[in-house]
Specification:
The complex is a heterodimer of chains A (183) and B (898).
Chain A lengths: L12 H11 L3 E5 H4 L12 E14 L9 E4 L8 E6 L14 E5 L13 E2 L4 E2 L8 E3 L5 E4 L8 E7 L2 E8 L10
Antiparallel strand pairs in A: 1-2, 2-11, 3-4, 4-5, 5-10, 6-7, 7-8, 8-9, 10-11
Chain B lengths: L14 E6 L8 E8 L32 E6 L2 E9 L38 E4 L2 E4 L2 H19 L4 E5 L5 H15 L4 E3 L10 H5 L9 H5 L3 E5 L8 H7 L6 E6 L4 H8 L3 E4 L5 H15 L4 H7 L3 H7 L10 H4 L5 E2 L1 H9 L6 H8 L3 H12 L9 E5 L1 H4 L3 H14 L10 E3 L20 E2 L5 E2 L3 H6 L5 E5 L3 H4 L3 H11 L12 H13 L4 E6 L6 H5 L2 E4 L8 E4 L4 E5 L12 H12 L9 H9 L10 H9 L4 H7 L5 E2 L3 E3 L6 H7 L1 E2 L7 E3 L36 E2 L4 H10 L6 E6 L15 H6 L4 E4 L1 H5 L7 E13 L13 H6 L3 E14 L7 E5 L27 E10 L18
């Protein structure tokens, strides 16, 4: 696989190196139904998807999430392009966590030209965007599918796990903007 | 959901060529990188061919998304392929901006192990109903023998072609040379209309060339009026790069609220949500408001609008065999400013209250639009530009375009930056005609006037076409009353009793001769994929074509920018470029002057025949000869910037550097003089020097394209259209069925349906319906619905008009020349407030479920152009689509979220 970039960092170095060392080996092709057990609908169960499996990172607490109030977090590191969003859409969502299957997380970088989607959430339609650069919108209930616009990839979906009240990110489905391999 | 989470980077030694997008009119600049499988570049600038460190930053233009990578075959070996927007582009898509279409270009490449493995690879002959491989020699032999027989026995007008008009100069030059020069058949139609000729005749008649502006010209406007188009959808980068600016107010005239409309409303713009087909009334009302308030640009009108003497100096002097003569004589349309003003102020159709009722647009919004486009503020006129596209000219072709150009001229627009009038365009400008259409041989004639171009569909249905060569188009679904047209084809081809039962050439020829003598037809379909039903069901011969990336090709984009589309991979199997196939056939027929060795030979020969056109690149070819180069190779040097046609040669460039950099130029010290592009047409103040060397200065380069050089106003009486319009209005539970495009789908989705990403987004035809219309029919988003029209009007004759009114809708109907057919299609419903109540909207070119099936096939009698946007039908729920519950395919969210 591709050689890894040199990392010049302090505090995040340890976890980041772990991830980077693991990234190539931890890429797996899974069926969507395996990736999000009991959280995928219709014929989509058998859709194959490449996943980057990463060390668990706590990103939020179930009890503190409010409907349609996105929570920002960085993942899988502290890089400029690592901003992500955790959202309780209050609507059945593909891969959604929780009893209502409505908690999802996505990269916060538009997969057209990398515009930040921070603060660009439309509660009525459960949509990320429009990206301020070229107006791309993403459906967060349908695995980040592009609704309209120019991204050539769905918004990368962050794989979530629930442990008690804690929500953990454990990997990424899709390729983060800016990268040739998730990192 | 994306199923790939990494992409290989091109290594330093990857081969890189420049090209431009194969798809929409904007033609963004791209680079194609190829390198053998099993190797890849590194993440640091010195270890990859992009010369950048990964990860790349926001807006870098150098990110490679998974859909920008694929595989292709180079010299017989499978290679990696990355097709990336040119991050160094300084024109069109500056900095690597791109559309979703261009961003998936890599996926169109032929990959024997991928989704494009079904590309056509060998000529095939239909024997006993099955397509079987045949040699090129035999295929050409059969075609030539049958063609000669058809021409000798049934006449040249029984031998026809239906082809793309845009898929590169080299191919269209060969096509037009064969059809118009060698065979001289009038039975020819481009892919998107029933016959040759103007798309927007009313714009041309005004003296305005439809692609006269540069993209930068739009960026200098204060206000842009968009009629029947949201360029955000499918002319994307022209819009995001050059128009999406908060200081430019956008006004949209559409039946549907799109992303561009939503952006406009959030940025001081305006949305005029119109009832389909009523644009002319809106234009008349806007003009009347402007004239009533004295907001017209009097200085411009005095200098640039033709007066009566100037009109008469070009028109109205008896029969003149010019394209516009017949429709501008007898005072019906052409008018001086004073005549026009008198006409419109007495015209009750143009009254604001009437316009509000007919168009469905509130009167205050029409009033506001008139103010925005024309009212001077503190003595300063707004710089207003006028854009139009198919919603305008595919609903009421002549009246809409003529009234729109009149509106624009009265606002002082048409020949200055910031004040331009232009089509936004669909496909790129790739037609390089070797010869004019042989109108003399056309079976169609206007009442008391000259011959006009054929309506090839009507010609087919009348049983007059016996041999059809179809190249790169989905004929039946792209034309009106699609299902009825398919039925006609089927009867003349696959249902004929004369079917090929042996692959032996003599036997095949004998069978096909017997078929054409018994009112049947022989069809040859030439394309890159199997195309239903023409190729898969009707055609006797299917020929495999090479396409983008598989041959060196050239053409212009929507600002006349000429680039080389470089070859970087092999064509599949024995597929050949279209020009080569034409050449083989022409030579077999004994036609002369087809001795091309390569596509550059065609390019250079074609240059001589385009010298008087707006796409003239002849000076580039002569300059290349001075340098001892091929024309293609000189163009390759100009990369993604290319050069804007018409190309001019000058002994010394006097254009400022900024102009040179935009329009494209080459000043090579090894050659005398320099070549330079032309940024804008019609502009009197643009310095183009004196005509020197091979340069031709056509009048329209610095004045309007008319006899007098001035713009021409046209009266547009609603009565020319109202008889048809009243007949086709939906009644009872019928709704208007109109259509358009979405960004993600290019044309029939011929490549997109093979790209998982695109196919997941749009696996099916869809129909947008207003919640009020949906509720009363029990329809929810995700439901499968059927749209049916059992009242599809089809013109059956009327080729020659004798008495006045013969060719009007009323005249045709009285003469029994309108039959009633049927049509239907199925679609997945999307319930949205974005669409006007009473109207539904589908993807125009879905070949599996063509909405053209419910569109009337009665062309505009003035121009022979269909009213594609004015279908109608009843819509009923028939069940649930699989996508309703499958979260990985389709989304039902609206496209106008802002």
């Amino acid at each position: 696989m591709t050689s890894q970039p040199e990392i010049d960092c302090q505090a995040t170095c340890v976890s980041r190196r772990l991830f980077l060392n693991a990234s190539g080996a931890a890429t797996a092709t899974m069926l969507l139904g395996e990736l999000f057990p009991n959280r995928v609908h219709g014929q989509a169960q058998d859709t194959p998807v490449q996943v980057t499996k990463l060390p668990r990172q706590k990103i939020g607490q179930l009890s503190k999430l409010e409907a349609d109030q996105p929570v920002s977090f960085n993942y899988p590191g502290e890089g400029e392009l690592h901003n992500c969003m955790l959202i309780k859409t209050a609507e059945l969502s593909g891969g959604g966590l929780g009893d209502a299957q409505d908690i999802v997380a996505f990269s916060g970088r538009c997969t057209h030209m990398g515009g930040s989607l921070e603060g660009e959430y439309n509660a009525e339609h459960k949509v990320a965007g429009p990206c301020r650069l070229h107006l791309t919108t993403f459906d967060l209930t349908r695995h980040g599918m592009v609704i309209a616009g120019h991204a050539t990839e769905a918004l990368p979906q962050i794989i979530l796990e629930l442990d008690g009240d804690d929500i953990y990110a454990t990997g990424i489905a899709g390729l983060l903007y800016g990268y040739s391999v998730n990192g | 959901m994306q199923n790939q989470n990494s992409v290989p980077l091109p290594p330093r030694n990857a081969k890189v060529v420049t090209t431009a997008c194969d798809y929409c009119i904007v033609g963004c600049g791209y680079k194609a990188y190829t390198w053998p499988e099993g190797t890849e570049g590194g993440q640091t600038a010195d270890t990859n061919a992009l010369g950048v460190d990964f990860p790349v930053a926001e807006s870098s233009g150098n990110w490679i998304s998974p859909n920008e990578h694929s595989y292709c075959v180079v010299d017989g070996v499978r290679h990696n392929l990355v097709v990336l927007p040119d991050a160094n582009a300084t024109v069109v898509n500056r900095g690597g901006n791109h559309s979703v279409r261009g961003g998936c270009l890599a996926k169109k490449a032929y990959d024997p192990q991928g989704a494009t493995k079904d590309r056509l690879k060998t000529p095939m002959l239909r024997v006993n109903g099955q397509l079987v491989p045949i040699s090129w020699e035999d295929a050409i032999d059969v075609m030539a023998q049958v063609s000669q027989y058809v021409i000798d026995t049934h006449g040249r007008e029984a031998w026809g072609m239906k082809t793309f008009s845009y898929q590169y100069f080299e191919n269209t030059y060969a096509i037009s040379k064969l059809a118009f020069e060698s065979i001289q058949t009038p039975a020819y139609a481009p892919h998107d209309k029933p016959g040759p000729g103007n798309d927007t005749a009313g714009i041309d008649d005004a003296g305005i060339i439809p692609f006269s502006a540069s993209y930068e010209d739009w960026s200098k406007a204060d206000v842009i009026l968009f009629s029947g188009t949201d360029p955000y959808e499918t002319k994307t980068v022209a819009w995001t790069e050059w128009m999406m600016r908060p200081n430019i107010k956008h006004i949209y005239v559409l039946p549907r609220r799109t992303t561009g409309v939503a952006w406009a409303e959030a940025n001081g713009g305006l949305f005029l949500q119109i009832i389909p087909g009523t644009d002319t009334i809106l234009h008349l009302a806007l003009v009347r408001l402007i004239l009533e308030n004295g907001w017209e640009d009097s200085d411009f009108i005095k200098e640039w609008v033709a007066n009566r003497w100037e009109i008469d100096s070009g028109f109205g002097r008896g029969t003149r065999n010019t394209p516009w003569q017949w429709r501008t004589t007898w005072g019906k349309f052409g008018a001086s400013f004073d005549e026009y003003k008198t006409w419109i102020l007495e015209n009750s159709d143009a009254e604001l209250a009437n316009a509000a009722e007919v168009t469905g647009i509130p009167a205050d919004k029409i009033q506001l639009a008139a103010e925005m486009i024309a009212r001077p503020i503190e003595g300063v006129r707004p710089k207003t530009s006028f854009a139009l596209e198919k919603g305008n000219y595919w609903s009421n072709n002549y009246l809409n375009t003529a009234s729109y150009s009149t509106l624009a001229l009265l606002c002082g627009s048409g020949n200055r930056e910031g004040r331009v009038v232009s089509r936004m365009g669909g496909h790129q400008r790739g037609w390089m005609g070797a010869e004019s259409y042989p109108r003399t041989f056309s079976p169609e004639k206007q009442v008391g006037r000259r011959k006009k171009e054929i309506d090839l569909d009507r010609w087919v249905e009348a049983g007059n076409l016996r041999f059809a060569w179809v190249i790169g188009t989905t004929w039946t679904q792209a034309m009106a009353a699609s299902q009825e047209l398919m039925t006609s084809f089927r009867a003349m081809t696959s249902e004929s009793e004369h079917q090929i039962s042996k692959a032996d050439v003599d036997s095949v020829v004998a069978t096909l001769k017997a078929r054409v003598d018994s009112k049947g037809m022989v069809v040859v379909h030439q394309d890159i994929y199997p195309v239903a039903p023409m190729g898969t069901e009707f055609a006797d011969l299917v020929l495999p074509a090479a396409t983008w990336g598989e041959e060196n090709f050239t053409r212009c984009n929507g600002e006349r920018r000429l680039r080389l589309y470089s070859k970087f991979c092999d064509a599949p199997g024995d597929a050949k470029p279209d020009w080569w196939i034409i050449q083989q056939f022409a030579q077999q027929m004994g036609f002369k002057d087809y001795d091309w060795k390569d596509s550059n030979d065609v390019f250079e020969q074609a240059a001589r025949f385009g010298r008087k056109g707006i796409l003239n690149y002849h000076p580039l070819v002569t300059y290349a000869k001075q340098l001892g180069m091929k024309g293609h190779d000189l163009l390759r040097q100009l990369g993604t910037t290319g050069i804007q046609t018409p190309v001019r040669w000058r002994t010394e460039l006097t254009e400022p550097q900024e102009y040179r950099d935009y329009a494209g130029h080459l000043d090579d010290p090894k050659a005398r003089g320099a070549i330079i592009g032309t940024k804008r047409l019609h502009d009197h103040d643009m310095d183009i020097g004196k005509p020197e060397g091979p340069t031709l200065h056509m009048k329209w380069m610095q004045t309007f394209s008319s006899h007098s050089g001035k713009g021409l106003l046209h009266k547009t009486p609603w009565s020319e259209f109202s008889d048809f319009y009243e007949r086709i209005k939906p009644t009872g539970d019928e709704l208007w069925v109109t259509m358009g495009r979405v960004n993600e789908i290019w044309q029939t989705n011929f490549d997109g349906q093979r790209t998982k990403y695109i196919n997941d987004r749009w696996p099916s035809q869809f129909v947008e319906i207003h919640p009020d219309d949906a509720a009363s029919r029990g329809i929810e988003s995700g439901d499968l619905v059927r749209i049916e029209n059992d009242d599809v009007l089809i013109q059956t004759g009327g080729f020659v008009g004798v008495e006045n009114g013969d060719q009007s809708f009323t005249g045709l109907d009285k003469a029994g020349l309108i039959r009633i057919g049927k049509g239907s299609y199925e679609a997945v419903a999307i319930v949205t407030k974005a669409i006007k109540p009473g109207v539904v909207w589908s993807n125009a070119l879905d070949a599996k479920a063509p909405p053209n099936s419910v569109v009337h096939r009665v062309p505009d009698p003035i121009t022979n152009r269909y009213r594609f946007k004015l279908g109608k039908g009843r819509i009923t729920r028939i069940g649930e689509s699989p996508q309703k519950a499958d979260f990985t395919q389709m989304t039902f969210r609206p496209r106008d979220i802002m």
